[in-house]
Amino acid sequence: MYSHGSESLINQAREIQEPELQRFHSRLVKLLQGKELGHEAVDSLQRLHIILSATKYTRTLPPELQGSLQSLLASPAEQFQVLSSAVLRETLPLSGQEGNYTQENFIQLNNHAAALVLSQAGSRADLSSLCAQLLRSLESRQSDGPAASLTHTLPILNTVLTHSPDCLTEDHVTLMSKKLVDWLRYASITQGGGAPSGGFFTGTRSRQPVPIAELDGTVSGDFFTVLCVGQSFTEDQWMNVYSFSMLRHWLITYRSVSNGNTTADTANRLQLSLSLSLSHSFSNEAHKKTDTDLQKACLVEAVCILDSVCGEDAALVFRAFPCIKALFGRLSSDLSFARVLLPIAQFYLNHGEMAAVDCESVWNLVFGRFPAELFDHQFLAHEFLRFIRLNLESLQLRVPQYSRSFPNLLKFLAWNSPAVVDDFVDLLPSLVTAGTAVELLHTLLDLPCLSATLVLQVRSTCLPISEPGGRGLLSLDAFRSQSFRGLFLFLLRGEAGSGDTIDRLSTLHEMLTETADWPRVVQCAQTVPVLLHIFFNTVIAIADQKLLAHLVQVMLERSSLLLNIPKYNKEIHRVFSRHLLLLCKLHPSLVVDQSHELLEFAGATANVYSKEEIYTHVVWVLGEYLSGSCDSRCSVMLITSCFETLEAVLFEITSSAPPPGADCPVPRVVTSLMSALAKLASRSHDLIPRVSLFLSKLRTVTRGGPVAWCSDEEDLVAIVTRGEELWSLLKAPGVAQSVLTPPQPVTTPQWHGDTNVAMPLQLRALTNLTHSQ
Predict the structure, then answer these.
(1) Which has the closest alpha carbon to 399: 407, 388, 413, 409?
(2) 3-class DSSP state for residue 210?
(3) Residues 612/616/622/624 CA torsion (nearest 10 deg)
(4) In whole angstroms, what is the distance from residue 112 CA to residue 152 CA?
(5) Helix then strand then coil, % of the chain, to nearest 5
(6) Mean pLDDT over residues 317-338, rounded?
(7) Whole-number Å distance between alpha carbons of 417 and 402
């Protein structure tokens, strides 16, 4: 939305009449023809730009004004270059000047003039003509024209190639490749200006050439590189810098255009110059931080260029690897060069197998120290996770440390969840293996604890041990205590394999209670349900029956061992419930395999009030799949044991008020228990009298008015109605078994639950017929 003042200016610009606009053009032409341009010229150019950009129609300026604006592109003041370029981009070129790219167009080419030239190239043919003219200008000698023309040629050419790489012919590509090599190798090693030789009479002819220096101040050797410094650069030195900057883009774009001989020759010369550059300039340590940052950026670019060159010609791998290996040896102990070490790791991944080199130290550094010590570096986290995503298949095949490194990798997520959650949505399936699934599940559930621990780790290094006159953090004291050090060290472990989880999780959660409302911890907790869905969807495809049974056991155990964060426990229970159903539906025998654990969970009355979501689904799978038709191992004794367990819970919750501080059990829990008892009784007819007696008592009790275990009248009516339906079914055991435990052809689809068929109507009719009036 525009401010009121801005809207007023835009409206004025749109409503200006043609006569007034022509008078304004005339005044502006006279103003621009003056010797000095001041604030009035700036204001007028800004007003003209608003007038032109405020309408949807493109205007044509008078030829005289158009010429003045084009001349202004060469102004020594960049402000006028910007304004004139912006104005001209909003206009149509004069008739006959479209795509007219001559040597005069490039005499004073600069960034802003280049932007104008690009904006006026209306077709691919125009871009091809522009590229051809740019390349012709590159072939001219310094004496053929002003030197300033070349310094902006490569940037504009690079911009054109980004949007339309097919504008160059094969001959142009070959020519450009050779020019890039020449600029990289043969730049002069003296500064652009010179130092006066001394004396009273000093002038330009008496100045002596000054050698180029390195970042540490020492005199440069035989090569000029992008890291050389001086008071001023010569044109060929600038072209060296520009060539280095666009070289990787050039190699990626045109790696297959040139013929084999030309490509190989170019690659060889590039590799030689870059190898010498690495050993010559990059070995010096810079004195200033800005120079250090420049050095790191250039190192990244140089290694990436060598990687591209070796990808073009595999024979160069053996010549380039000693240089890369030496660079890794110098930088691996200094994590401030982490951004440089990532491209080195990329080089090892791409070419290490061909060169038969040992890459273990590289991967131990990348997947070990990087996440452990640099988890709070946001930009590195982005670069690191991007590196993994781009090389995921290769990492899974060639780097055994990758799949074991998830405790370390998840530190990026635990520290800055919103920024990297999309990366982990893509990466998590690759971390799920049969050997790591159980530990990974525990680790995902403990992510909020890891987030809190990382915060405590950072705080412990910057906060005093004791704060005089203030109340310290109990969690921070626990983190520093040797008694609990093992708990936190397990969360901070670097790789999998030291154990699935820890015994004293409840102790850990108690110590971290005060961290439950920390923003970083809350944000981390919000990502866990999403990742758990991905985990279970992945593990179902790779796990065997034994592993799935173990995961069911973990879900039941961990449902009560979670950090107490608002809404977090309920969300995790909801995820567990959904995937418990899916697992048991795909593998019904899991219910028999884990019958002891499931019954132990279902027999705990406290779970009815604290874990109603997952409790309801555990009861449902027991009633649905504890059947001889699902697993031949399901005996009458097991069915009876399950029946008695659920019967005891149902009797307890419907015969007394809920515990102090707890709400009444939700109706779904009660109806699920009743349905499960009815299903089990339909498979063992000796149990039918027991469940029928309970259901008849339930009907009698509720006739007496409100009950302590259900505070809502509508809920009570729904429970009683469900009980009457089940009671009516059980009066005809054969019908009950066919409805509550139908054979497989009937359960898919479930005809008895489909409201579009007659079965529900028949059930209601049967209820009315068997119901005693």
Answers:
(1) 388
(2) strand
(3) -170
(4) 10
(5) 70, 0, 30
(6) 91
(7) 21
CA atoms of 19 and 171, how far apart (whole Å): 52
Residue that the structure tokens 């550094």 belong to: 365
Report the distance separating Cα 665 and Cα 539, nearest Å.
Answer: 33
Q: CA-CA distance, 146 to 148, in Å (whole number)?
A: 6
**418 vs 77, 226, 425, 528, 595, CA distance in Å?**
44, 37, 12, 12, 39
* pLDDT, tens only, 178-206: 888 888 888 888 887 654 544 444 555 55
> Of all helices (H) and strands (E), which one includes residue 192?
strand 190-196
Among 172-176, 196-200, 301-305, 533-537, the range with the most confident prediction by mean pLDDT is: 533-537
Amino acid, single-letter form, for residue 342:
L
pLDDT digits 0-9 by tens, 598-626:
999 999 999 999 999 999 999 999 999 99
Compute CA distances 723 → 379, 666, 735, 741, whole Å: 60, 15, 16, 17
Neighbours of 557 (CB within 10 A): 14
In this prediction, residue 6 carries a pLDDT of 59
Length of the chain: 773
CA distances from 235 to 135, 191, 231, 480, 573 (A): 16, 10, 13, 60, 68
Q: What is the mean pLDDT of the chain?
A: 83
- DSSP assigned state of 103: G
649, 600 Cβ separation under 8 angstroms: no
- Predicted TM-score of the model (pTM): 0.82
Could you tell me the end-to-end alpha-carbon distance of the chain, in angstroms, rounded to an integer?
72
Top-confidence residue, 224 or 426: 426
In terms of Cα–Cα distance, which of 108, 117, 193, 192 is closest to 146? 108
Count of beta carbons in the 10 Å neighbourhood of residue 374: 16
